[in-house]
């Protein structure tokens, strides 16, 4: 009997010790930091932070946004499930800007060619002589001219398959045409003549050009530079919603940007913003919300991230007579969320993605408070945490004039060089006294 009691007593004591040990292990596990979310995982819905610091504000998702569905018939994710690990803003190192090209008037940047060595640019011809479309080699400083046109607000595009640029051009009889340039003077070719405007979009492969025709404004056309013919795009744009007042000619034409994997096209003007799926023909309208005294927000400028998941947007509200100053936003096509980023940047006017699809460089300028000052500061934005960092604070750069298509900034696909317009302006009026391009070497500190 005594032995049985002792066994029971010892057994209960053992159970108590085991329970205490399990509880202690659970408490230790809970106190350990959780492992970070792996890069490339779906981003959680951003939530506001109670007391954000000036350079680390919370991203606020627009509540009216809806997720864009995957193309019909596909079971795999639209976007890769993993992306290159991000780089913190402090890890980027921007070298001293070097002036690599000068001109007596303005120089505009259309973008890097695939070799990350040559730039597609346009330069004004002095005394109103038009503008020339050229490539510029940053190493040899060689310039190759492909043609000229009446000065235009629209960027030329590079056709990889043809090895030459194309652009929208206004003819002497006031028609918009699509021209493919040539290194031999006078050999440029007009390949379409029914354009609604000068705005073009080339696919990543550099074979196809999307443009809008007068004959069918809701059905864009695609010119194939290898087949040398045009065909209708596989989608129809909805009719423009009724507007309180007519759109100005500056805001009415559609512009487009092609997703890097060539599966979607973003299309926008001063009244609407769409993402069209080329495989299904489905067109999704994106609501950017309103500003009470100015009306709906609209897209002024859009650029895809290299991985195709995000669209960086510069949006505004109002019309030409009363434009509310721009702000920077980002559309995540995986979740459909539209977030406001870079609130600390004054009047963002142009932006470019880093190769990691996480960071943006942005030009911000003083705006209407100093209308004769068109110089801009350069900023780096980490889109995941919302931080903003002024880059090269002792330098001021310039806003090049492809108007709503930018023209003052481009980051090479390899990430090693950033080119920025850095013209010298007159002190009393917005007049260029010397056009310049500055090359900024970039490293990640790894």
Structural overview:
This protein is mainly β. 7% of the residues lie in helices and 41% in strands. It contains 1 helix and 33 strands. The chain has one helix at residues 2-31, and strands spanning 60-61, 93-94, 98-103, 107-112, 118-124, 131-137, 143-149, 157-159, 164-170, 176-180, 189-195, 201-202, 208-213, 216-224, 229-232, 255-258, 264-268, 273-277, 283-285, 290-291, 295-304, 310-319, 322-332, 338-341, 348-353, 359-364, 375-382, 387-391, 397-398, 409-411, 417-421, 424-425, 432-443. A 6-stranded antiparallel beta sheet has the order 1-24-23-22-21-20, with no helix packed on it. A hairpin with a 5-residue loop joins strand 25 (348-353) and strand 26 (359-364). It is globular, with a radius of gyration of 26 Å. The termini are far apart. The relative contact order is 0.15. The model is unreliable at 1-85 (pLDDT under 50).
Features:
446 residues, mainly beta, six-stranded antiparallel sheet, 1 helix, 7% helix, disordered N terminus
- Rg over CA atoms: 26 Å
Mean pLDDT: 78
In the sheet with the most strands, the strands line up as 1-24-23-22-21-20
**Are there runs of 5+ residues with pLDDT below 50, and where?**
1-85
Helix content class:
under 10%
How would you characterize the largest beta sheet?
Answer: 6 strands, antiparallel
Structural class: mainly beta
Q: How many β strands by DSSP?
A: 33
Strand proportion, as a percent range, falls in 35-45%
User: Terminal Cα separation, in Å?
Assistant: 74 Å
Q: Give the CA-based shape.
A: globular
List the total number of helices: 1
């Amino acid at each position: 009997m005594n032995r049985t009691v002792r066994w029971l007593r010892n057994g209960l004591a053992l159970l108590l010790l085991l329970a205490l040990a399990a509880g202690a292990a659970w408490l230790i596990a809970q106190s350990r930091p959780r492992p970070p979310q792996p890069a490339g995982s779906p981003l959680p819905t951003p939530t506001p932070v109670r007391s954000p610091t000036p350079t680390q504000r919370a991203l606020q998702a627009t509540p009216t946004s809806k997720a864009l569905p995957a193309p019909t018939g596909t079971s795999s994710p639209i976007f890769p499930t993993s992306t290159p690990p991000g780089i913190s803003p402090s890890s980027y190192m921007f070298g001293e800007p070097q002036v690599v090209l000068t001109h007596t008037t303005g120089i505009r940047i259309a973008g890097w060619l695939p070799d990350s060595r040559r730039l597609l640019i346009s330069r004004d011809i002095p005394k109103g002589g038009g503008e020339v479309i050229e490539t510029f080699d940053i190493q040899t400083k060689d310039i190759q001219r492909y043609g000229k046109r009446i000065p235009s607000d629209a960027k030329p595009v590079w056709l990889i398959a043809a090895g030459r640029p194309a652009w929208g051009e206004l003819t002497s009889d006031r028609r918009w045409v699509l021209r493919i340039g040539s290194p031999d003077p006078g050999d440029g070719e007009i390949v379409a003549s029914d354009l609604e405007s000068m705005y073009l979009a080339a696919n990543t492969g550099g074979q196809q050009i999307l443009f809008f025709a007068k004959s069918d404004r809701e059905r864009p056309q695609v010119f194939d530079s290898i087949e040398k013919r045009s065909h209708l795009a596989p989608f129809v744009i909805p009719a423009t919603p009724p507007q309180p007042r007519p759109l100005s000619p500056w805001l009415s034409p559609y512009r487009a940007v092609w997703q890097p994997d060539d599966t979607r096209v973003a299309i926008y003007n001063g009244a609407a913003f769409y993402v069209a799926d080329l495989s299904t023909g489905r067109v999704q309208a994106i609501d950017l919300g309103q500003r009470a005294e100015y009306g709906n927000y609209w897209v002024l400028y859009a650029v895809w991230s290299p991985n195709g998941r995000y669209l960086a947007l510069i949006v505004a509200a109002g019309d030409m007579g009363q434009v509310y100053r721009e702000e920077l936003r980002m559309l995540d096509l995986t979740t459909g969320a539209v977030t406001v980023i870079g609130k600390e940047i004054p009047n963002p006017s142009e932006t470019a993605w880093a190769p990691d699809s996480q960071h943006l460089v942005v030009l911000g300028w003083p705006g209407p408070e100093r209308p004769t000052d068109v110089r801009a500061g350069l900023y780096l934005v980490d889109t995941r945490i919302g931080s903003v960092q002024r880059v090269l604070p002792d330098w001021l750069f310039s806003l090049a004039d492809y108007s709503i298509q930018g023209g003052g900034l481009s980051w090479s696909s390899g990430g090693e060089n950033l080119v920025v317009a850095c013209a010298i302006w007159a002190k009393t009026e917005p007049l260029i006294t010397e056009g310049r391009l500055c090359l900024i070497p970039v490293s990640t500190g790894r």
